[in-house]
Design a protein that fits this description.
alpha/beta, 22% strand, Nucleotidyltransferase, domain 5, five-stranded mixed sheet
Protein backbone atom coordinates (compact mmCIF):
# COMPACT_ATOMS: atom_id res chain seq x y z
CA UNK A 1 0.00 0.00 0.00
CA UNK A 2 1.36 3.42 -0.97
CA UNK A 3 0.34 6.18 1.41
CA UNK A 4 0.69 9.94 1.22
CA UNK A 5 0.90 11.57 4.65
CA UNK A 6 0.22 15.28 5.01
CA UNK A 7 0.92 17.71 7.84
CA UNK A 8 -1.40 20.55 6.77
CA UNK A 9 -0.89 24.24 7.16
CA UNK A 10 -1.37 27.39 5.15
CA UNK A 11 2.23 28.59 5.33
CA UNK A 12 4.04 25.23 5.64
CA UNK A 13 2.75 21.88 4.43
CA UNK A 14 4.75 18.72 5.00
CA UNK A 15 4.24 15.64 2.87
CA UNK A 16 5.68 12.16 2.80
CA UNK A 17 5.08 9.07 0.70
CA UNK A 18 5.76 5.60 2.03
CA UNK A 19 5.08 2.06 0.95
CA UNK A 20 3.97 -0.51 3.49
CA UNK A 21 4.24 -4.25 2.95
CA UNK A 22 4.51 -7.11 5.42
CA UNK A 23 4.62 -4.69 8.38
CA UNK A 24 7.68 -2.94 6.94
CA UNK A 25 7.78 0.67 5.84
CA UNK A 26 9.79 1.98 2.91
CA UNK A 27 10.38 5.63 2.20
CA UNK A 28 9.49 6.71 -1.32
CA UNK A 29 9.73 10.50 -1.12
CA UNK A 30 9.12 13.45 1.18
CA UNK A 31 9.26 17.20 1.21
CA UNK A 32 7.44 20.38 2.05
CA UNK A 33 5.69 23.27 0.42
CA UNK A 34 5.65 26.84 1.64
CA UNK A 35 3.32 29.65 0.64
CA UNK A 36 3.98 33.35 1.09
CA UNK A 37 2.16 35.23 3.83
CA UNK A 38 1.00 38.19 1.77
CA UNK A 39 -0.42 36.10 -1.08
CA UNK A 40 -4.22 35.88 -1.23
CA UNK A 41 -5.53 32.84 0.64
CA UNK A 42 -7.29 31.48 -2.44
CA UNK A 43 -4.00 31.52 -4.39
CA UNK A 44 -2.18 29.76 -1.57
CA UNK A 45 -4.86 27.09 -1.31
CA UNK A 46 -4.89 26.63 -5.10
CA UNK A 47 -1.11 26.10 -5.08
CA UNK A 48 -1.43 23.55 -2.27
CA UNK A 49 -4.18 21.76 -4.18
CA UNK A 50 -2.09 21.61 -7.36
CA UNK A 51 0.91 20.23 -5.46
CA UNK A 52 -1.26 17.62 -3.77
CA UNK A 53 -2.71 16.64 -7.16
CA UNK A 54 0.81 16.29 -8.60
CA UNK A 55 1.83 14.04 -5.69
CA UNK A 56 -1.25 11.86 -6.16
CA UNK A 57 -0.48 11.51 -9.88
CA UNK A 58 3.26 10.96 -9.50
CA UNK A 59 3.17 8.31 -6.79
CA UNK A 60 -0.06 6.38 -7.54
CA UNK A 61 -1.32 6.78 -3.97
CA UNK A 62 -3.67 4.17 -2.43
CA UNK A 63 -4.61 6.24 0.64
CA UNK A 64 -3.98 9.66 2.10
CA UNK A 65 -3.46 10.21 5.83
CA UNK A 66 -3.78 13.73 7.19
CA UNK A 67 -3.26 15.21 10.64
CA UNK A 68 -6.47 16.85 11.77
CA UNK A 69 -6.98 19.91 13.93
CA UNK A 70 -7.80 18.86 17.46
CA UNK A 71 -6.09 21.65 19.34
CA UNK A 72 -5.46 25.23 18.38
CA UNK A 73 -4.30 28.39 20.09
CA UNK A 74 -5.33 30.84 17.38
CA UNK A 75 -8.84 30.57 15.93
CA UNK A 76 -7.96 32.35 12.68
CA UNK A 77 -5.01 30.04 11.95
CA UNK A 78 -7.21 27.01 12.71
CA UNK A 79 -9.75 28.28 10.17
CA UNK A 80 -6.99 28.67 7.56
CA UNK A 81 -5.73 25.14 8.20
CA UNK A 82 -9.30 23.83 7.98
CA UNK A 83 -9.60 25.45 4.54
CA UNK A 84 -6.40 23.70 3.45
CA UNK A 85 -7.67 20.38 4.78
CA UNK A 86 -10.92 20.85 2.85
CA UNK A 87 -8.99 21.54 -0.34
CA UNK A 88 -6.89 18.40 0.17
CA UNK A 89 -10.04 16.31 0.70
CA UNK A 90 -11.46 17.76 -2.51
CA UNK A 91 -8.35 17.02 -4.57
CA UNK A 92 -8.11 13.49 -3.17
CA UNK A 93 -11.76 12.86 -4.05
CA UNK A 94 -11.08 13.94 -7.64
CA UNK A 95 -8.33 11.32 -7.75
CA UNK A 96 -10.57 8.75 -6.03
CA UNK A 97 -8.08 8.39 -3.18
CA UNK A 98 -9.61 7.79 0.26
CA UNK A 99 -8.61 10.22 3.01
CA UNK A 100 -8.11 9.23 6.64
CA UNK A 101 -7.83 11.81 9.39
CA UNK A 102 -5.80 11.28 12.56
CA UNK A 103 -5.43 13.31 15.73
CA UNK A 104 -1.97 14.17 17.04
CA UNK A 105 -2.65 11.74 19.92
CA UNK A 106 -3.40 8.89 17.49
CA UNK A 107 -0.26 9.63 15.48
CA UNK A 108 2.00 9.79 18.54
CA UNK A 109 0.52 6.58 19.97
CA UNK A 110 0.91 4.77 16.65
CA UNK A 111 4.53 5.84 16.22
CA UNK A 112 5.89 5.73 19.76
CA UNK A 113 3.32 3.83 21.81
CA UNK A 114 2.92 6.93 23.99
CA UNK A 115 0.32 9.59 23.23
CA UNK A 116 2.22 12.33 25.02
CA UNK A 117 5.52 11.75 23.22
CA UNK A 118 7.34 14.93 22.27
CA UNK A 119 8.18 15.96 18.72
CA UNK A 120 11.78 14.71 18.98
CA UNK A 121 10.66 11.23 20.11
CA UNK A 122 8.23 10.97 17.18
CA UNK A 123 10.88 12.12 14.72
CA UNK A 124 13.41 9.63 16.08
CA UNK A 125 10.89 6.79 15.68
CA UNK A 126 10.12 7.90 12.10
CA UNK A 127 13.86 7.68 11.39
CA UNK A 128 14.05 4.19 12.94
CA UNK A 129 10.86 2.82 11.34
CA UNK A 130 11.94 3.99 7.88
CA UNK A 131 15.57 2.91 8.36
CA UNK A 132 16.92 6.39 7.66
CA UNK A 133 20.39 7.64 8.62
CA UNK A 134 18.97 10.89 10.02
CA UNK A 135 15.68 12.53 10.95
CA UNK A 136 13.87 13.90 7.88
CA UNK A 137 13.86 17.69 7.63
CA UNK A 138 12.04 19.98 7.82
CA UNK A 139 9.89 19.04 10.83
CA UNK A 140 6.69 19.29 8.76
CA UNK A 141 7.93 16.55 6.43
CA UNK A 142 8.83 14.30 9.38
CA UNK A 143 5.34 14.90 10.82
CA UNK A 144 3.79 13.97 7.47
CA UNK A 145 5.80 10.73 7.37
CA UNK A 146 4.60 9.95 10.91
CA UNK A 147 1.02 10.45 9.69
CA UNK A 148 1.59 8.06 6.77
CA UNK A 149 3.07 5.43 9.11
CA UNK A 150 0.13 5.94 11.47
CA UNK A 151 -2.31 5.23 8.65
CA UNK A 152 -0.47 2.02 7.74
CA UNK A 153 -0.47 0.74 11.32
CA UNK A 154 -4.13 1.68 11.84
CA UNK A 155 -5.10 -0.06 8.58
CA UNK A 156 -3.20 -3.19 9.51
CA UNK A 157 -4.82 -3.28 12.97
CA UNK A 158 -8.30 -2.89 11.44
CA UNK A 159 -7.56 -5.60 8.89
CA UNK A 160 -6.43 -8.01 11.60
CA UNK A 161 -9.58 -7.56 13.65
CA UNK A 162 -11.83 -7.59 10.62
CA UNK A 163 -13.08 -4.00 10.56
Amino acid sequence: MTVLGIDPGLANIGWGVIDSKDQKFHLIDYGHLTTKAHTPVEDRIQRIGKECSNLLDTHKIDALGIEDIFYFQNKSSAISVAKVIGAIYYVASLHEVPVFSYSPLQIKTSITGFGRADKKQVQEMVKILLGLPKIPKPDHAADALATAICHCTQSLAKERIGI
